[in-house]
Amino acid sequence: MNRQVLKAQAKDVLRNHYWPMVGLSVLLMIFGGGSGSANTIRAVFTDDNSIALATYSTIVGMLIGVFVVNPLTVGVNRYMIRISRGEQARFEDVIYAFHHNYFNVVKIMLMEVVFILLWSLLLVIPGIYKAFEYSMIPYLLAEDSSLSQKEAFATTKRIMSGHIGDYFVLTLSFFLWYFLGALTFGILYIFYVVPYVNLTYTQFYLLLTKLPEDNTFVNINNQNTDLS
């Protein structure tokens, strides 16, 4: 798997859809980053009921993540898949999961997090491995939000089989960009790093689903893979 080709393809897509991708990055950062962390810190240091307020803020943040950020992530992935394929994408794609099997998407995305956390309780390495193995679930749901939990997990495990190492190395290859983004106080994240990285992962997904041995949405119900 040629990382340079994936990144070059991502850059081509980004050049043609730069400002929409920046806008989507801002949207995700608003909901994902503004889910209560600042309020939690403020509450701990300034209020007599700091623990209660911090707990409340954390719970609210978790709920926003489960019911807003996760479905929104699926919709953004749908948007990126479509523009990467040269198709016309619209705002309706971004909110796709909110009006197509919403609670199914919420459930599966939540279970992804739960399973990763459970594996992480064993050791850090199994948790990281499972996070990589399950990483294609938001993309699969972006293409078909009606997938069952069993289908989604079985499919991501199948298409990631033999490619965990590729995904790990691809992730490491962005380290310098994350470092530069931190140096610019997050400005570079918004205007380049987040759109570029997300589009590269989209190219990774599209490549996996094009591989000769893959039949992502064919006879999936005949598979007998457990959720281990």
TrEMBL record:
The keyword Membrane applies. It comes from the Bacteria. The keyword Transmembrane applies. The chain crosses the membrane at residues 21-45, 51-76, 108-129, 167-194. Keywords: Membrane, Transmembrane, Transmembrane helix. Pfam families: DUF975. This is DUF975 family protein. It comes from Intestinibaculum porci.
